[in-house]
Amino acid sequence: MKDFKYKGFSSKELYSTVRDKFMIEERELYEDENLTSGRTYLYKPIRIKKLNKITNKAVAFKKIDLDYLNSWLLNNKDYEVLEIDGYVYKALFFPANDLYTKDADKGYIDLKVRLYKNALSNIYTSERVLTNRIVDGVDENEKLMDISNKSNIEGLILHPNFIISNIPRRGFDSATTIVIENTSISNNKLTINLVENEKLYINGKNDYIESNKKRYIDKTGEYIKLKEGLNAIKLKSNGYCKINISFQQEFNIEGVWNLE
Questions:
Q1: Which strands sit side by side in the sheet containing 124-130, from one edge to the other?
Q2: Which residues contact 105 (CB under 8 A, 6 or more apart)?
Q3: Would you say 229 and 167 are in contact if contact means Cβ atoms under 8 Å apart?
């Protein structure tokens, strides 16, 4: 049994009381229940419980609870974000059947959830600052970072997002050229030229770069990729800049879905 977030709202923070919480657990299939799956989705049988936060015992649902759950979980036409134990799912909830609230007085209702077949991790993010100075004998214009991609989908290549800013810090010369390279993948290097006071957003998956200067971006090479396992990322500049990298790992649901 797990607490969860759906559409950004936590099951531990109820609208009506600070004493109770909602929890999610997997349930047994009914005798006549048949949950189908498709190429891009699957169904899971689940149960929503209302528990007292102190005693952890089931508490009967009130009408206001059911109205709230109907609005929060069951009144959606498309996938919404479901977060459980550090994993992010695209999820859509449905009643298990016409009598899904029959045991509400016992503190639970039975639902089913439709899940997109791949789950994501929480967003990994890291930032490095590069300059054109030498500090303690170390050239600050080049930095290395190791990124472990634990995605378990065969053949999947991830493209991390980057935010690059050369907006100057007092006493430093701003970078005009940035080089990002994944040395763990052959010829995976990206070189970008910047203008003064520029901030770039790079989304390699969607072949998209946006500048606060509203200009065409002068770049060479290919967008950075992350293979499964360890990736050695090298960052290099000819002046001051901040480089932020972010990505989400991707997993087969059957390898991570666990409500125990």
A1: 124-130, 241-247, 161-165, 199-203, 208-211
A2: 60, 61
A3: no
Interatomic CA distance for residues 132 and 155, integer angstroms: 38
Count of C-beta atoms within a 10 Å radius of residue 258: 10
217-228 burial code (b ≥16 CB/10 A, e <16)? eeeeeebbbbbb
Return all residues near 186 (Cβ < 8 A) that are at least 6 apart: none
Res. 155 pLDDT band, cuts 50 70 90:
confident
DSSP 232: E
pTM of the model: 0.79
Q: Rounded mean pLDDT of the chain?
A: 92
Residue type, 139: D
